[in-house]
Amino acid sequence: MSIHAEVEALRKVPLFASIDTAKLKLLAFTSERLRFPEGAVLFREGERGDSAYLLLSGQVEVTLQTPQGPFVLATIGQHNIVGEMALLGDMPRSATITAREPVEALRIGKEQFFQLLRDLPQMTLEIMRELALRLSNANRELAAAHASRAGKETS
Prior knowledge:
Layout: H1 3-11, H2 21-30, E1 32-36, E2 41-43, E3 51-57, E4 59-66, E5 69-77, E6 81-82, H3 84-89, E7 96-99, E8 103-109, H4 110-119, H5 121-154
Antiparallel strand pairs: 1-8, 2-7, 3-6, 3-8, 4-5, 4-7
Helix pairs in contact: 1-2, 4-5
């Protein structure tokens, strides 16, 4: 894919929609373009976070390991970013990300990611909004799972 095509793909990502073309070209040029087949693991829960992945196409599953086995927390599709939580929190990966179908992604290294945040305050705000939305959805899923489990225990 050409730099021009990658810039157009990046512009479709809400996080990057308002970023000027020169910065998007730099991001496209300095990121590593990767392809993952269905079932491939982008990263595993507990691993050290050294990059974020911008999903250009395809979908991934977000899975947590529980005592009962893997629990699919969410499905995330194209034009979204995954892996940023470990970078922002300087902590191990909080979930495993697996390609649900073939995925194309840009791998954004930790230093490059933080440079973007320093240069683009609007991107920082968008990431905060996305994380808040994910936390709200996770809380709702957890509450539903807890209610379902409590209902089964009283039956």
